[in-house]
Amino acid sequence: MAPAIGLFFVAPLVAEFLLGDLPIKLLGALVILAPMYGGGALLIREVVRRTGRGWPTILVLAFAYAVLEEAFTTQTLFNSNYLHLNLHLLQPAYIPALGIGAWWTIFVLTLHTVWSISVSIALVEALVPDRATAPWLTGLGLAVTGVLFILGAVASTALEIRQDRFVASIPQFVAAAVVCVLAIAAAFRMPVRPVTHSAGWVPSPLLVGASALVAGSIFIMVPSAWGWLTVGIYLLLDFLVIAAVSVLSHRAGWDGRHRLALTGGAALTYAWHSFVQHPAIGNGGIGFRIGNAIFTAGLIVLLAFAARRNAQSSGSRISSDSVS
Q1: Considering the entire predicted model, what is its pTM?
Q2: Domain range for residue 177?
Q3: Rounded to whole angstroms, how far apart are CA atoms 221 and 13?
Q4: Residue 101: which H helix or E strand, with range?
Q5: How many separate domains does the chain show?
Q6: Which of 257, 253, 245, 249 is nearest to 306 (CA)?
Q7: Per-residue model confidence as pLDDT tens digits over 234-264
Q8: CA 155 to chain centre
Q9: Contact (CB, 8 A) for 300 and 246
């Protein structure tokens, strides 16, 4: 149960606190955030591992989660003045026919798909490399997680509507629901790619981690004011990263150390950016930055521990292969 419980709390910590949206003094918000973020990440991870599928399915289901949260719970995909913060989220690359902003849509959906769900799952799996692809929950545990997720989603939605009073149009809700359903269907229609170990160059874990950090930093720092140019950069980055990882991960020599490096580079993007991020609640200050430092230090400790576990696991496999 330990990895499952860990993921339940790691997901909201990464999504809101490591990013720098919420200060450390609001850790009590995990009561609402964990069932939504953690429940969603845990459900996705367990369903995928139980059905013998892999990361492509996780990513597509994470995308469906992102649409669910931002279209139904927070409704930021359609709200031009979210929480009356005057952020003008929909203004860059606005699409009048859909009532959405292309910049914000791609930006926030990528944040949840990559960081909130996928990075959280990969980080916790890296802590238990020998159980990384095995189910962590019993049937009862999975059912309880599903109930907690639904309760978290309902509570978060009610809280958002109470604070903002904004409700999207019926066509917008219907369109978002269709996208969610299609994404979920596509996730389980994707062919399961056999595990192969083709020949070819594989970069060192250090290079993989550095590349992930650079790609993540570019993504998070490109100005929204560039509008459609930023949208193009986002799409190009997404394509290049997916293509590179898809090819390299099926080559001999790619192992848990590379997956951890990819995860660590992405997570460290959130960590450094938290120090320049303006919080969603409050005005920052020294207390807020102390919190950023604590979460960053916690991430580094987890990455170091996971690196040690993966090095030991890789060494054990090499020894076993040598004996065989």
Answers
A1: 0.92
A2: 2-323
A3: 21
A4: strand 100-101
A5: 1
A6: 257
A7: 999 999 999 999 999 989 889 999 999 999 9
A8: 21
A9: no
